[in-house]
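Q: Two folds, back to back.
A: First:
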Amino acid sequence: MFRSGIHHVLISWRLPLLVALLALPAVVCAHPELQEQIDLVSIQIETDAGNAGLYLKRGNLHRRHQDWEAAYRDFGRARDLDPDLPDVDWLEGRTLVDAGRYQEGERLLNGYLATVPDNVSALQTRARARSSLGRHLEAASDYGSAIEHAEHPSPGLFDFQARELAAAGPENFPEAAEVVTAGLARFPGEVSLLGLRTDFALAAGEAAIARQQFDRLKPGLETLPQWELRLALTQCLEGKKSAAEQDFLTLYKRVSSEGAPRPGTFSFPPGVLHELAGRATPGHCRQVVIAALGSWNSGTIGFE
């Protein structure tokens, strides 16, 4: 049965240990190391080599371990053993997307979602693939479907759907703002959504709506640089040119002295802040917000 005496000794030593681990209460084995889990399933395969589900399980563990080739081999073996096994397309598609092979991953996910259209995780994974391929409206549609099918949709689903709509062009900003508003109806204090709602209001020149979002912030958050920037932009749209330019100049000096902030937190580079400090007109302020919202890579003014 075993290929060598050494292998036989290793298996005979490990098998009782792994069997004992299986017998422990669930809480003890709730989060073992991935390699430990892989080893456990490998032992199970040694004694049940025709079980396609075990290869599927180990393949998904390899995915989480980012051992892509090992994952592909296990998924292929699972297909060979049981061509009709559920979830092979889903898990292999997810692995391909995680590995950056977006077109191949999307192809498998398309087939899977044609038969299981309500798998929220699969919808999110296909959305990631489509976003990476530059097909932002399709990605937004997938996030919308995930929201529809999720029993308890997370704030992040609304966030990502709105960002994908924005990345597809300014003509989609009104729809994106509606998505954020729907998210805030469920999660009134969610800071990322409040930030996005403010940003879309600024892009539309709606200073009053932007102002309203500050009233919904938890105390203290308004002193963060991204919210100080939003306040300066709001003042700019309100025609408070001197106050806005002073705030832009203060932010410019801070960023210049402290260095670039954490990615995804504060997307305006020092050059733009310096420009706004000398040219805080409503039209110009709107344009820089529109440019920021339209760039998926730099994100929005706010933090994710």
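A: Second:
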Amino acid sequence: MGGEILEERGCGEVRRVGCKLGGNIAPRPGEKSVSMKENFADPSFVPIILGTDIGAYALARSFHEAYSVTPILVTQVVYGPIRHSKILRIEYVPGDSNDSADIRSALIDGLLELGPRLQQEFPGKKLVMIANLDSNIWDMMLHQDELREYYEFAIPSPELLAETNSKNFLPETG
């Protein structure tokens, strides 16, 4: 059943309704096949993903598959699946220190330096910045006024971020 699209019909009955074929959904008899890439040709944005872990790679892959874009990963080092990936572009930012405060500062400086170049390279497109690490989200929040000159992103308030990152926020169980 690998790659098949299934439809649940109630009472546990499941039937095959199509087969995923390289970004296409095989149609039912009499229907035309439509590529996901046809649906999202030339999107109006470029994903800018912060990080180099498997989560950043998964985000990049999702954007690539859904929108046929080449996401840009902004990082100081490259690990694992990102190292040889052909579905994304890597932009390195300098960072020679092991002090986490310096590394975060270098990331912000790198993003601010990269912003004008990306705007020139992708005129008229939104540079949508995405992060899934707490430290990157804090950096985005602390420097959002500067970053918003080049990038678009959603960020919670400092109070909400602090509250949701606290174990005291979690409901008690048991």
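Q: And?
A: The mean pLDDT is 76.
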